[in-house]
């Protein structure tokens, strides 16, 4: 290693900083400089590929960890007091002793941080030493190196099933079409394959890619964390620029699949890769309870300063009252004023434990325990996906018990995100697919366990059909469907969106005949609307085609159940599955043989194959039935499978070609000219292809109805009959009907592009792709330029079914006092239908629909609705009633009401509504609504979603919940908590949320009480020792008291206590309301506990004082009963607060008592002269031999606890809280309790049972009803009429005129 001057090092550092901060980077190959020094490397200023996620180093761990811990003001406070105690004039304890508490806390925290950092170090070392292949110019081949050896500018080869070590610009693929298939599950959780293509024009030889011949410059943007966008171009020596984007970038962490090998150029390495820039670590938020805690700590500081000020003034008055210095005090030359000033700091040191030093550490331990029980709750485990509950934010568990508003996505959150093809309309003619509806009804029927088949592969695709069942009625179709083995629609599959529910479609016989007629007229030789419709479904997507032999094995994303190691059990399970398959093989074969087949009726003649171009093949390749489609969205998968059911089979897809087999068996190879990908602004995608027969450039487009209808041009053909002139209006009418039934709708269109138009457009397209500045906008502009004057082909209706128990969950959340809003991008009619199906909307609700075209109309609508609501609330007859009003608003109107001048009015209107449905929303609007409600109403918000479009909303809410659905893990990675089903939200909030909040709130209150009660014993003693800062309890025992004797019981209380059982909390959701708003931990409960602590300290001090007054007991003999009384009082106080006793409670409570006496007896026996001039030797032993000691401890403890016990008895007898009434239910026999809850929930309308699919119809006018009170037998009349009793029900509905 050569020596370099400091100036050279500084110069390189400055040059490197400037190079890294540039908006554009110019990268060249490292091969010409291989083996040379670092100073000659062209890309030396950029990050290496070695990563380091550790926070500390071995040498600097202690100072860095202490620096981080001192970010907490409480730690600075206690360290400052410990240092202050080293000053002789103000010290209250031995200086070394005062350091023990804070040193113990800092050490425990440091050990925890060190263990976490060591685990990160092990992970880093494992990743950095993973093998990879880097090209070497000296060896003329790819050689094996480690990930940490990769540098920007290297050429890296990645083989199949290997992980990409850095961000690579794809230059070569072993696949013939320059395609590389990757799996991004490690980045975003999406398990479907994605295609990446080589940069066009780089590898021009047939011999493969030769890294040494690469002499171009790669210009790319500065590293950023956007996984979906990448700006880059390759500049050749002749200054030709080749545009490249995200479609040519292999991201670090992705896995290469179904590709022999690929070669890429390293553009980002190490911490500059997109995956590392997205690795923000665990989320950290401050809970509402913690913010309240900090305020109360501030009050305790004020209280401490007040007590110290009293002590300082008292010491001054005591000194002034003395004519001379007492003989038992050393002469002091200080003035009385200076001595009292010093005494102020002495009192701070003495009374410092008023601020609970161990509270923050105890809170962290309690939250870890709470998370353990949440994650291991079997009810939150999903067997289908083998996924558990995940807690990604460790410090906001208690916020789950204080939620006021829940904002939910629809698709994939309330619904399964399993798209089922239901209906379609082509050229204004609707095809209802009644037979397919019957099949779905059969699948929905309950089935016995032995009827479930374990092989979840879809049946062989039907490439065509017979006319055997044309005249078959519904009953015939039903019987035919019963011959098939039933398949569970929600079974797991290796391929996303490939369950039998999604892949199998029974064709509509009328549509079958239309396609057959089109083919009989030689439809493949000419354009036909029906053929074009299904060609659009087959071609206009990004579905990846794989065959059975190429499918890869993939582990679950978050497996919770470990695989068995017992080979006998595995073999037994396999035999059981095989036997079930064998039993069904014959019946399944018969069922398939009776299904539609094409061979007997295939309309094919020898003339069909004459004169075909190479793009047209007469027969399908062998084994084409073993095709598997891997789609990025369930909509695409459903449409491709629907087209396959009609014989339009997608055989292969490459960046340049798409192969489709027609129902006749003829194979067409379409040349792909360009793909206009979907984006949230255009709401559509298009594929531009060259037709193999007509050689025309054809644009196939699919998208949202409003995005397609406004782009329509002339009708499909000029010679259409009059009945087809209004195709667009007929299609729109069918779309409205689909939306009312809750279906997702897509419009299909096409456009024939002339060669001249295509060439002109291609120039601007290539220019946009090679651009760096505003690249996305330019590309979108070119897409908009092409997507004009479209010809409407038809539309589809796809059903996305509700998840299990969604209606029950939404009803329970609403009964718990939680407002549920749905924020979706679907149509208004679809959202309303889902709202009725989810029980968010009821038949008797008054539905306010806001869909305004301009701001004036929007403002008028807001004012009118607000005025009606105010008039209702001001009516004396409506006092105490809640109007059943729901609001539905679309995205365009929402954009207007989010303006600053209308925000307040919108929030005022929305908070008066029971449910709000927001439709046609963008991701940014979702987050804006959440922020608006959170900030304006000052409420706790929770957002739940499953897709990338929900990330903004999840991060904007106080608590973000991600659902690990079929659209990847982006929402989960951005969330605080992750669940697999929406129904799990019910127990997560109503049970675990309630428990976490009540446990932690009561524990914090108890901590403040405990410290104030104990420190007041020292404060009261100052009145009898001249406020000299003397303690009547040994210093070591004072430290042990808080660190060991009384520290474990409150932690146990915060982890294990259950005020109400899970069954009652789920059965009576109203109990959740106790945590909303101010909750149990509020200003009143805090100061009541402080006053109770003052009272108990007075009793615990003055009863022993009066007993031992005028006796000859020494200072520690007087202090030992006080210490013992405090222990028993605090433990029994906690016993009163504990709601459910377990073996753990008894062990810890009795263990604390045993530990106290054991340690104190041992200390008194061995401490001969530990704290001079005082002496604690044999004090407790002597006290335990005196009956007066037991009498004093018993009487003092009982008198101290008498007010609290009396208060609880009177409150529970006169005005029982809802939680107490819930505990009364727990004392019932389980069968009686369950029957009572079922009857009560049935009375409230929240009973279980199947929820019917509501149709859109005008809701009936609400009428005034007589209030009805339901009183359980164990409640008296006073309890039933209490305002606080949330189980009382008043079902009154408003009257609107």
From TrEMBL:
What taxonomic lineage is listed for the species of origin? Answer: Eukaryota, Metazoa, Chordata, Craniata, Vertebrata
Its GO biological process annotations read: phospholipid translocation
Top-tier EC class: translocase
Q: Does the keyword Transport apply?
A: no
Name the residues that span the membrane: 73-91, 97-115, 293-318, 338-361, 1021-1045, 1081-1103, 1115-1134, 1146-1168, 1188-1207
**Residue ranges annotated for the P-type ATPase C-terminal domain, each copy included:** 972-1216
Write down the superkingdom of origin: Eukaryota
Q: Which keywords accompany this UniProt record?
A: ATP-binding, Endoplasmic reticulum, Magnesium, Membrane, Metal-binding, Nucleotide-binding, Translocase, Transmembrane, Transmembrane helix
NCBIfam families for the chain: ATPase-Plipid, ATPase_P-type
Q: Which family does it belong to?
A: Belongs to the cation transport ATPase (P-type) (TC 3.A.3) family. Type IV subfamily.
> Cellular component per GO?
endoplasmic reticulum membrane; plasma membrane
Enumerate the catalysed reactions: ATP + H2O + phospholipidSide 1 = ADP + phosphate + phospholipidSide 2; a beta-D-glucosyl-(1<->1')-N-acylsphing-4-enine(out) + ATP + H2O = a beta-D-glucosyl-(1<->1')-N-acylsphing-4-enine(in) + ADP + phosphate + H(+)
Segments of this protein annotated with the region Disordered:
593-619, 1242-1269
Q: Which Pfam families match?
A: Cation_ATPase, PhoLip_ATPase_C, PhoLip_ATPase_N
Q: Which residues bind ATP?
A: 409-411, 636, 678, 702, 744, 824-826, 920, 926, 949-950
Q: What protein is this chain from? A: Phospholipid-transporting ATPase
* P-type ATPase N-terminal domain segment(s): 43-97
